[in-house]
C-alpha cells in the first residue's frame, strides 16, 4: 500500500519557509516547526527528514518562488539603469512594508544565521549569489549598450558592488531602516554609475 499523506506537503513547506525566514534556522526549534506546519514530528521526519533537510527544502522553495522571479525580471528588462533602480525599489518596498516587513531576505539571513559547513546550503547560497550577479551584470551591459555608462566602467566589478548593496538593503531592513533612507542610498549609488558617462 502506498503511504497516503493526509496533509499538503507544499503547504507545510511554505509554513516552514515563513518560520525560518522570519526567525532563522538556529532560533526555530523543532517544536516551533511542528506548531508552524501543523505536523507531528513523525510526519515531519517521514516527509522531509530532519530539521536541516527541511530548512534546505524551505530555502529552495524561497529561491523558486521569490528570488528567481526577481532575478528573471531584471535579466529580461531591456532598460539598463532604470531596470536596476526598479529592482531595488521593489526590493525595498518588499522589505520595509507589507506582510514580510522586517524579515529581510531568507537567503541573506542564511549567510548570517546558519552553519556554513553544510555543503548543500553553501552551494545553494553560492548559486544564488552567482545568479543575482549575472542578472546585475546583464542589466549593466544593457546600460552600457544604451550609452548610460562610460565605456571604461568595469561592469563585473560594478555588478558585484550592486549585489553587495542588495545584501546591505536586506540586512538593514531587518534592523528597522526606513525605506526612504535605503532608497536614497540606492539612488546615490546608481547616480555614481550614471554620471560616469557624463
How do the strands and helices of this protein lay out in sequence?
Layout: H1 9-23, H2 30-37, H3 41-48, H4 51-76, H5 81-96, H6 106-113, H7 119-145, H8 155-174, H9 179-195
Helix pairs in contact: 1-2, 1-4, 4-7, 5-8, 5-9, 7-8, 8-9
Q: What is the class of one domain in the CATH system?
A: Mainly Alpha
The CATH architecture category of one domain equals Orthogonal Bundle
Question: Count the helices. How many?
Answer: 9
**Stretches where pLDDT falls below 50 for ≥5 residues?**
none
Looking at the structure, what is the overall shape? elongated
Spatial extent as radius of gyration: 19 Å
Tell me the CATH superfamily of one domain. Tetracycline Repressor, domain 2
| Mean pLDDT rating | 91
Helical residue percent band: over 70%
Main sheet: strands, sense, barrel: none
Secondary-structure content class: mainly alpha
E-strand count: 0
- Elements, N to C (H/E): HHHHHHHHH
Predict the CATH topology of one domain: Tetracycline Repressor, domain 2
Amino acid at each position: 500500500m502506498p503511504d497516503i499523506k493526509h496533509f499538503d506537503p507544499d503547504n507545510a513547506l511554505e509554513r516552514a519557509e515563513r518560520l525560518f525566514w522570519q526567525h532563522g534556522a538556529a532560533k526555530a526549534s523543532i517544536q516551533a516547526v511542528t506548531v508552524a506546519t501543523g505536523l507531528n514530528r513523525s510526519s515531519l521526519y517521514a516527509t522531509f527528514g530532519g530539521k536541516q533537510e527541511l530548512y534546505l527544502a524551505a530555502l529552495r522553495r524561497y529561491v523558486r518562488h521569490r528570488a528567481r522571479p526577481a532575478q528573471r525580471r531584471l535579466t529580461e528588462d531591456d532598460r539598463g539603469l532604470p531596470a536596476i533602480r526598479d529592482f531595488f525599489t521593489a526590493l525595498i518596498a518588499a522589505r520595509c512594508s507589507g506582510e514580510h516587513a522586517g524579515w529581510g531576505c531568507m537567503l541573506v539571513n542564511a549567510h548570517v544565521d546558519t552553519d556554513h559547513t553544510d555543503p548543500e546550503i553553501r552551494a545553494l547560497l553560492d548559486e544564488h549569489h552567482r545568479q543575482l550577479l549575472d542578472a546585475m551584470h546583464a542589466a549593466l551591459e544593457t546600460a552600457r549598450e544604451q550609452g548610460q555608462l562610460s565605456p571604461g566602467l568595469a561592469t563585473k566589478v560594478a555588478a558585484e558592488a550592486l549585489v553587495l548593496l542588495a545584501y546591505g538593503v536586506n540586512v538593514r531592513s531587518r534592523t528597522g531602516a526606513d525605506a526612504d533612507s535605503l532608497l536614497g542610498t540606492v539612488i546615490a549609488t546608481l547616480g555614481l554609475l550614471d554620471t560616469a558617462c557624463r
